[in-house]
Amino acid sequence: MREIDVYSLPINLIKGKIVDLSEGDVVIQFDSRLGMMRIPLRMLITEKYPQTGDEVELYMSYVMVNKQ
Amino acid sequence: MAISHENIERYFEEPAVVCCLTEAGTIIGPENLEEPEILPELQSGGFLQLPSNVLKIKEVLGKRLKKTLQPLTPVTPDLIEEELSSACKVEKQNIVSAFNTSEHNSPIRVSIGEGKNITFEIPTSLLQFFPQQHQVEEKEKIKRVLTLREYEIKKVQWADRISIQDGVLMLKKDIVNEISSIDPIVKKVSIDVIEPDKRDIFTNTILDVIPIATKVEGKIGEGITNILKGVVVILTGVDEDGVQIHEFGSCEGILSQKIKFGRPGCPDEDDIIIRVDVVIERRTGMERRGPYAAHKVCDVFIQQIREVLKTKSASEASSIKELVEVDKKGRPRVVIVKEIMGQGAMHDNIILPNEPCGVLGGRCNVDLGNVPVVLSSNEVLDGAIHALTCVGPATKETTRHYIREPLVELLRADNDLNLVGVVFVGSPQANQEKLYVSERLGMLIEAMGVEGAIVTTEGFGNNHIDFAWHIEQIGKRGIPVVGVTFAGVQGSLIVGNKYMDAMVELNKNEEGIESEILAENTLCPEDARRALAMLKTKMSGGKILPPFSKWDPAVIEKNQSLVDRV
C-alpha cells in the first residue's frame, strides 16, 4: 500500500441507500449488490439528519490485501 | 485560473504569469494573472518554465504590457513599460483613506522597489491621527485565583475503607459491589490497580483517562482544588456480546502498546493506573446511554475517593500551585475555540460538572444544542470538561487532556497576548445545524472583540466541515485565525476556504493515519508552540507560505525547528 501514490489512485463512484440507522452509525447497502458498509455518523456528510431510505454516494478505490 | 481581487495581496511575492491571451497595451490586473498555487504543478508537468528574471506579482500590477502574450507566459522586465500607471495613484488614495478611517493602528506600508529623488509630503492635519506619546500605562487585573494542592501517591492498595495517608491510597475492597447496581445498563464492573512496571496486560478499549481531583473551596476555576498526583483512573469497556465500546476504531490490546504514555491526555510513564472496566448492555455501545452509564458508574467510584481527598489539609500536600488568571490589559485579546464532538451517541462532553473532571452536575453539550459556551482558562485547567467522546483513540482528547491542555497553558502564560477565554463549541451531525452553530460562534467572537483566535478540533470526519466554517466566520470578520487539527492522510480536510491559510497539523503517525494508539495524534506542547507562533506571525502581518498539494511531514519538522530556535 505504501508504495502506491495514494493521490493518484483510481476512485470509483458508488451509490447506495441507508438501510439502518442508530444514534452513532448508519448501515449502507450499495447498489448492484456491491455489499454493505457500517460507518459512524461522523463519516456521513448530510444537510439534514439522515433517515432510512436516504440515497448516498461515495468514492472509493479498490481494496488491496496488505498481509497474506 | 485568474486571481481574484480579494486574494491578490497574498500573492504579491509570487511570480507573475499571465493566465490567458493578454493583448499589448493591457494594464495588468489580478484578472490577467495565473493563480500562483498551481504554478509548481504546471512546472512539473512541463507546461511552464520560469526564467530567472520573472517579475513578482507586486511588480507588474498596474503596468502596461508592451507585447501581446500567449497564455501561461511569465512576465519579464522586457515585456512591460517602465512607467507606473494607476496602481501608484490608488495606493496614494489608500494611504489617505487609511488616515480617514477609525483604524488608527493600521500600518502605513510604503514599498519602494527602486528609485531616486523620492519625496513624501504629508499634510500636518494628518498628524492628529498618530497615537499620543504619553499613553497611560494600563495595569494587569487579577480575574480569579485557583489554588491547586497536589498529593503525591506512591502506592495504591486494597483495604477495608478508603484512605489517603503518607503517599498511599487505600481503596475499599467491596467497592465494586456498591457501584455495580447504580445503572441498569452497566452489567458488570471490575477494578484493578496496574503498577507502572506491570503494563503488559490485556485491556479493553480505553474510553477515558480521568484524574482524581476534588473541590475543597469555591467553584471550578477558583478557590481550592485537591488533586492526586502519580495516580490516574482509566475507564475501559465492552458490551455484553464482547463488542468494544468504540466508534472510529478501538484500542483494545496490550496496555503498554496501546497508550502513548506522557501525552497530555494519557497516563504518564510512572503513573499508577486504576483501571475501571465495565460491561454494558448489549448493543448500547453506539447509543448515548451506553457510554454515559459507564462514565457515570466510574464517577461514583471516583467520588468516594474525592470525599476523602477533600479532608486533606494544605500541610499534607506535596506541592501547592497557584493558577492566577490575569486580564493583561493593553495587550491583544485572543481566544481559543475548541470544537468538541456533538453528533450525539458517545460524541458528547460534559461541561462544568460539580467536581473537577466529574460527571454529575454538568451539562452535555449535545443537550445545550452544541452552541458555543465560554469558559475561563482557569475553569478549563480545573477540570471543567469531562470527555465522553469516543472518537478514534489516536485523536481522542480525554478528560485528562483538558485539565492540562497545552494550548491553554501556553497562551495564558504568554506575556504578549491576553487570553480572554476558551470557547467550547459542539459539532452537530447535519450541515444545517452546523451552520447555525458556526454563525453563533462568529457573532460571539465578534462581540468578544478579539484580535486573534486559534480554532482546534479533535478527531476527523464531518466535524471538519464546521471546523472550516468556524475559521471562516472568524476570518471574515478580519480577525487573524489559526486552525489546529489532525489531518495526515486519513483525515485530509474535505472543505476549505481562503481564511484557512495558517493550519497546524497534529498528526505524529508515520503513515498519517488513525493508529488506534491512545492520544498519539493529539495536541502536544510542541504543536501548541507552532500554533502560537503562527498566530503571532499572522497577527503581525507576516506571510505564511501556502501548503504543498501533498501531505508532507517534513513541513512540520521544519516549522517546529524554526519555532524552537526562536
Task: Please explain how this structure is put together.
Chain A is mainly β and 68 residues long. Chain A has no helices and four strands. Chain A has a four-stranded antiparallel β-sheet, with no helix packed on it. The model of chain A has no long low-confidence stretch (mean pLDDT 86). Chain B folds into two domains: 8-74, no CATH class; 145-564, no CATH class. In chain B, 23% of the residues lie in helices and 22% in strands. Chain B has helices at 39-44, 57-60, 86-100, 175-180, 255-258, 289-309, 377-381, 399-403, 406-413, 431-448, 463-475, 525-539, 553-565, and strands at 141-152, 155-159, 163-165, 168-172, 186-194, 202-203, 206-210, 213-217, 223-229, 231-239, 253-254, 272-280, 319-327, 333-341, 349-351, 363-364, 373-375, 385-387, 418-427, 452-457, 481-485, 503-505. In chain B, strand 8 and strand 9 form a beta hairpin. In chain B, helix 9 (406-413) packs across helix 12, helix 10 (431-448) packs parallel to helix 11 (463-475) and helix 12 packs across helix 13. The relative contact order of chain B is 0.10. Residues 84-104 of chain B have low confidence and may be disordered. Chains A and B meet through loops of A and loops of B. Chain A: It comes from Caldicellulosiruptor changbaiensis.
Largest interface: A-B, 18 and 27 residues
Structural class based on helices, strands and sheet pairing of chain A: mainly beta
Mean pLDDT of chain B: 89
Number of helices of chain B: 13
Gyration radius from CA atoms of chain B, angstroms? 28 Å
Radius of gyration of chain A: 14 Å
CATH class of chain A: Mainly Beta
Please give the alpha-carbon distance between the first and last residues of chain B: 38 Å
Give the helix level of chain A as a range of percent: under 10%
Would you report the number of β strands of chain B? Answer: 22
Largest sheet of chain A: 4 strands, antiparallel
Which band does the percent of strand residues of chain B land in? 15-25%
Shape of chain A: elongated
